[in-house]
Structure of Exocyst complex component:
Amino acid sequence: MASLETAAEHERILREIESTDTNCIGPTLRSVYDGQEHGLFMEKLDARIRNHDREIEKMCNHHFQGFVDSITELLKVRGEAQKLKSQVTETNGHLQENGKELTTSMEELRQCRVQQRNIATTIDKLTHCLPVLEMYSRLQEQMRAKRYYPALRTLEQLEQTCLPKAGQYRFCSIMAENIPKLRIQIRDTAMSQLKDFLESIRKHSDKIGQTAMKQAQLQRSLDSSVSPQPRVLLGRHGRKAAPAAIRAGMGVNPLSEQDTGILDVEDEEEEDEVPGAQDLVDFSPVYRCLHIYTVLGLRDVFENYYRKQRRKQARLVLQPHSNMHETLEGYRRYFNQIVGFFVVEDHVLHTTQGLVNRAYVEELWELALSKIVAALRTHSSYCDDPDLVLDLKNLIVLFADTLQGYGFPVSQLFDMLLEMREQYGEILLKRWNVTFRQVIDQDNYSPIPVSTEEEYRQYTSQCPFQDPELEKLPFPKKLPFSEFVPKVYCQLKEFIYACLKYSEDLHLSSTEVDDMIRKSTNLLLTRTLSHCLQYAIKKKNVGLAELVQVIINTTHLEQSCHFLEEFISNITNVPPDTVNATKLYGTSTFKDARHAAEAEIYTSLNAKIDQFLQLADYDWMAAVPGGENLAASDYLIDLIAFLKSTFSVFTNLPGTPIEHATLPGKVAQTACMSSCKHISTSLMQLLLDPEVRQISMGALHQLDTDVKECESFARAGPVAGFQGDTLLLAFSDLRQLLDLFTQWDWSTYLADYGKPTCKYLRVNPHTALALLEKLFKPMKETSRKNNVFAQFRKTDRDRQKLIDTIIKQLRNLIVQHHT
């Protein structure tokens, strides 16, 4: 069985050797020698070789006769080939002999063709040279006629087109050498004309600006005649006059200017009435120079030079005279020069292709705008004449309208007008400040008594007040507020009228006027009136009754803010419910004043409480009391007696029994809660004071007794209106901390820390750790002194270990809280 498998394997290897490339039979032979039957394989291989040799011999014998026949035929063909070669050689000899005449004729024809080509080349060269000479002659004529831009075009065509075609001739070389000189001559001449142009526009800027502002003023007059409310049409955000339309009044034709460099006039009649910039300055030099430098490939150089020179001129124009603020004419001359400068720049922007781009003009305008605003801020600050301020405002409006018509953003100028409005308003605010203070000083802080219906109607007409219940009461009766309320309300309306006068002719829409008046009124409310109210609250010798009357007055003024907004809406014709309308801050102003009055009450009470607390003299190292009950500290008993007396008087303060009877009660509730919180916070600060380094459990028990006394005061309800034990919450932080230490309930605190249901939820680990260290310090020192006998006091040693464990866990809680 093994021999059969070996034979089959050898047969497969032989077939693989026969059918495989000789380069790949190495592995096959290796498999033979790796086996044990390589001798038998060699025998099979020799047998296979002998079989192939026999097959080759049979095949050769079969084809031998055909090979012999082929050799015989090849020998016959060789003889015929020799004959053919002899015939071809003979035929070639005859052909060479007969073609000698034809070769001669062809040579003569070639010579004729060469002559013909030379003649054509000469004609072509002359054809190219004649235009060069003609064009150079035309160039000389254009130079003599000072037509530099056409001359430059001719020069460019001569250099790029004609001279390359003409070839390398001496006259062409001379022309080529002269071309750079001619370009330099043209460039220098154009630059000279540009300098003259810059000087011309510098001289005429004032006149150009005056002309442009006259056009803007004329446009305003036309708009006013068309619309009964020009402010709506010419609003700062709603009006955008088309620059092209205004430039049309100057006779600008951008297309013709770009093509020829010369301005055309569109409307001669309009120019006769209001001349444009082209009537004062010839712009053709700048167009010509631009085109020349563009052709010379120096456009960037020209643009940089032009812009640099104009920036220098801009700095000169933007520098105001030192005495500009003295007269309106000084401002007018300053504005005319600036308008003239930017009208020229706008003209160049729209009549050239890139000499000045929009970004450059905007950058220049931003620079100018900042300097203009700075100059106006400086010089207008010297103006103390309201008429001059109003005239200057009108001039700035005309200046802004003029430049806005050319597409320049003027929002900063209008912001400057608002700043001037603030400056104008400052004079008014100072006047109203004096008026408000006089009203405050003259007020008696008492409800207004009215004896007749006429008096009642007089007061209610001065300020909005409606109280049906009060109207039913018989005379004499009292209004809840003092004289302060109607006087202040009337002065607020007078201030609004004064603001409206400044808002006229500002080219603002009704909404913007409304917004402007509201903002000015807000400034009066939040600054002037607020400070006056603070003055009234902070005055010396202001008692509790006066502070409560201030609260009542500010409450009525707060309620009148709605009517004040309606008053503004009526004079500006803007509905009060307009979207994005500015709301008056009177409500917040009077609320702040009321809160300040309340805070003054709370501050006074807290200051008095601090005086009592300064009498506190705790023995922080007191021993733990025995079985007797501790008594509250004397200072705390006096403090609680004072608070009871104060709140009793406070809740019985006079007030209208209808609307405002509950107001003192609310203030009393807040004052009571504030006082309790202040006491609790102060006691906590005493406990955690860094100067108190050691505390005994006896001191904690004494403090716990005082806190219980405070809680008893809170539970008794010194002021009506508190629900349940709400007032006790003021002492909850301190109560939980003291319970934790007096009851030594650390297991509950550490186990439930962080849970909403924790019994000591208000105890902070930092606070607990600080107090525990103060409490642990005397124990630790005592233990250190008695270290010799420490091993005999197991109770003290266990207590010390427990405290160490608690401190460690508290620190872990602090670390976890921070994490």
Residues 228-272, 652-663, 788-792 have pLDDT under 50 and may be disordered. Residues 400 and 410 are 6 Å apart (CA to CA). The longest strand covers residues 449-450.
